[in-house]
Every structure is written in C-alpha cells, then in structure tokens.
Amino acid sequence: MSRSNVVERLVEGLKRLEYRGYDSAGVAITTDNLIDRRRAAGKIINLEAELAKNPLNGNKGIGHTRWATHGEAHAHNAHPHSSDKVAIVHNGIIENFADLKKDLQEKGHTFESETDTEVVVHQITDFLTTNNDPLLAVKQTLKKLHGAFSLVIIFKEYNDLMICTRSGSPLVLGYSEEDIYVGSDALALAAWTQDLVYLKEKDLAVIKDEGQHFSVTIYDEQDIIVERPHHQSRLNIDAVNKGSYNHYMLKEIYEQPFVIGETFNSLVENSTHVPHVIRETLTQLPLAEVNRIAIIACGTSYYAGMTAKYWLESYAKISVDVDIASEFRYREPLITQYDLVIFISQSGETIDTLSALRLVKEQNVKVASILNMPESSMARESDYVIQTQAGPEIGVASTKAFTCQLLTLAMITLQAAHAKGHLSTKKLEEELNTLLHLPSKILNVLQHDEAIQEISKQFVEKRDVLYLGRGTNYPIALEGALKLKELSYIHAEAYPAGELKHGPIALIDHQLPVVVLAPYDKWFEKTLSNVQEVIARGAYVVAITDTKGAALFKNQGMKNTHIIEIPIENHMLVSPIAYSIPMQLLSYYTAYFKGTDVDQPRNLAKSVTVE
Ligand code: G6P
Asked: pTM score, two decimals?
C-alpha cells in the first residue's frame, strides 16, 4: 500500500520470489471502485511483456508468482484470482477446496480456474454480499478453510483496505516511511524496507489507508489485537547477480572455495591460529549428552544428512537416523528427550521440513537447524541455529549450499566426537587443520572442469545414467543422480555399489553410462570389483577417483572406462565434499549442452512451501 504507483515494485519483488515458482505470474490493483489485473503464463518476464502492452497503475496492489498445485500452468490459473468484489493472492493449499467449491457452485458461483485459491475468492465474496463487512467476511471464510496458506486480499469497494493472514505458510510485513509492504519472504521486500514484522501463526493483519498515514492492526488467533516485534533485516540484495557467468549455477559452483572457507571461519575462532577454538554456535549443542541424533530434511539437504550419518557414527559413536521430512512427519516417529534432532534446509522454508520441526517441538524436544537463510521460519522456530555462509543461492539446483551444509555437519561431527571423548584434542586439531585447507582442495577439483565438459557431451543423448558409490560417497552418488535428473531431464538412479547385483545390474547394456565414485578409501577394492562387473556387461564407465585409485584402475586394464583423477588424498570428511564438485559440473554441463533451462528447470521450485 503506497502513495505512488506500486506495479513496478510488485514486479521487482516477484522477481526476488521467483525461486518459489515460475509457472505463471500476475499483479492486481484496486483503485476508484475498480479491481484491475494482468496475468501471464510462465516466468515473470512474460508478465512484464503483458504489462508493457497493457500498462497498469495503482497505489494499492498485490502480486504473485506461482508453482502450480491445482490446475495447469496457464494464465487462467494464474494469481491474483478475483471476483466482482475481491482479488486474492495465495500461497499454500486449501485442502477442503473441493467441498467448498461444490457448496459455492450450488449457490450460483461460477469458477473460471481449476485452482483451490478461487474458492477463497468466492467464499469471501459470498459473505461480503450478505454482510458488507470485509473484515468479518474474511474471518468467516478463514473458519471454513483447511490446509496451509497465506493470503493477501484487496477489495473493489474498499480501496483503503488490504487484509492478509497466514496459517502454515509464512508472511512478513515491511514498514517504510511512506509505504506498507507484505511478502512471503523478507527478500521480496529488501529493496525498500529492512523494518520487518513477521506474522505469527494464524495472525491476521488489517492494513488501512487513514488518509494521512497507513495503519496496521494485527489480530491473533483468539481475535485479540496484538503487537508483534519489529526486526531489522540484514539481507543484501546486491549479492544477487550472475557476474560474468552464463548461469547462476556455474557461478555458485565456482564460489564454493570461498563460501566453504567462510563457513569454516564462522564456526572456528581465529581460524588461521593454532590451536583452533570451535565457536559457541557448535559448543553449545548438547552433543555430549545425546544418545541418538535424528536428522530430517528434503531433497539435496537430505543427502547432506545421509552423509553425516556415516561421519557421526564413525567419529562420535552416536547412533543416527536420517529421515525425509515428508515421511517423518506422518509416521509417528519415536523421539525422546535424550535425542538431538537436527533439521537441514537451505531456505529454512520448506514446508515439509518446517512441519516436521514443529512436530518435534510439540514433543518438547530441542531442535537444531542448519540453515542458509537466517531470516527464515525455521531460524525463528529452532532452539539452535547454525548458519551456513553460502550466501544467496539462486540456481534452483543446490550446489554451494549443499557443500556448506556438509562442512557444517563435518564440524558438528568433530565437536561431537571430542565432546564424547572419542577424539583427542590433538586429533581434533589435526582434523580442523584438514578442513581449514578444504577451499584449496575444492579449487583443485574445479580444475577438472574441461575434462568433465567432454564427458557431459556424451551424456546429452543418453536416456538413463546409473551412479554408484559406497560409504560416504553413496549419498554423493544419490546427489549426482538427482542433479542430473533435475537439470537435464535424463533419468538417473544411484545405488550403493554393493547393492548393484540385487537388481539394477539387469539394466546394464552398452547404452548405459555408469558413473562411479571411487576414492581410494576402505571401500575401494569392493567398488573396483563392482566396476569390473558392469564392464563385463558392456557398460561405459566414468570413474571419479584419486591418484592411488586411478593407478589401480589402470592396473586392471579396464576397457570402456574414462578416469577422472582428483589428486587429493582420501579423507573421510573431505572426500564427499570434494566428490560433490564433479557431480555438479557433470549435471551442469550436460544440461548446458542439451540446452535446458539450467537455473530454473521445468516443474521445480527452489523452495517448496506447499506439501
Ligand atoms: C526443493 C529444491 C531442492 C532442495 C529441496 C529442499 O526441492 O528444488 O534443490 O534440495 O527443495 O530445500 P531446502 O531449502 O529445505 O534445503
């Protein structure tokens, strides 16, 4: 809500939210007893083209960029949705929309989209027609909605009013001298205001033009007027640009030596001085007392958690369970006061992970979160927050955030092992020294960029690719397969190399490339035998290994094998981080040569805030 035209700012803010989805976008304004809107399928650039053709002006408006849930990615399903009385933008899912829609249709309402959102529009319109009270109509509607949602509503006949509310999905208010902003993420507002108020669960805010100024009244779940604290945002939008790189993803891959170093520095005092002192962020974790650690995450973050299981069990002798958040939250998990539950999320907003976190907190168990976004819902709701220093990650496929998560988990492992008495101070110092030098090792791996480009060219025409790894590199193989799928749309699967003979070996023929992660570690000999098995069946193998491993591969005179030699010594904490880099480059270049949309692959969103 502003004293000047808001449309350009709405579009600018939406661009910063495009990581939430890019299936369609739209804006609507309310002015002089009129609601007007522009919408377009696809990315925000299409909305900009629409606005260039048919400009829109107004001082009070709403905007949305969509990740399709109910209804295809067409303009008619794009938000804002509107009736002759209201327009709405919505994040989340209205789970009982089908029942509400049926009732409303029986009352004569006609729908123009397949979305769940449109029932909110018609439900508010329905109440408004009878009671002529916008606030009451919204409150009555909210009582009927099931699911997780945040909503912002403007009214045709009440141009001085905007109502917003959240239940499950996040919503933040931004205050500036002139204007009031509302967004589902502080990043969307960062260009205009740092003065933020995060709405609490089930809060409803009424923003009103009082003539001389704008007022904001917040009602809590009990319908009582409340004050919520103001926060000063420290987000810096200048950090978000591509530089000279073709894609954000490549830039982010190349930033890894720096951000890994930054993450290390954030966890260790005076990182270049010996002996190293681990900072309170980690020492305050109750690691000495815990019997068990549960790690919960989604997507790439989940694979970081899987890697940590190998580390924590080996170094700290703590039993670790790793769960996918959407499974954990619905399977009546057993968590006790003696457990530490660690959540991992780049965004801190993934709804499945956030809901799992809330489930654990309801049981009065302490939670620690490893997050890249300090101003996120999970950061606000966790007992301990360990922030990675990856910086804004724009490419939808996670790269630098993943390796920073791994480094953080490696540090937690060392702290836990030391706290439990399984790692002497001298050994701890040696391990920290190894991690201190990780950035130069990553730089070394990045020098294989060109060799990986050549292999990627051969992957472009493939239909399937199989990834194999053992131990700590099994989750990295999983991550490699996920990256290839999401970026190049080539079907890829990862298996623990030892499991190959129990099924996937049936897939192998001369068409199938097999990527094998094989550092010279305790699993190497076994992996080498598995590679022989796939070569014997005609597969083409890309082996990623170190100098010792490469010599042994060559020794065995393997046919059809392309070796990428990464000349760094094998180390249990270093190897999975280092081997993530070729996985990232392989999927980046395969997608690049195939010509897919690397930074915004089809159907995906960076942060999935619906179930
Ligand atoms: C989405 C993204 C993935 C990411 C996952 C978890 O699916 O496309 O790249 O790994 O969400 O996200 P989080 O922000 O919780 O780490």
From this structure: 0.86
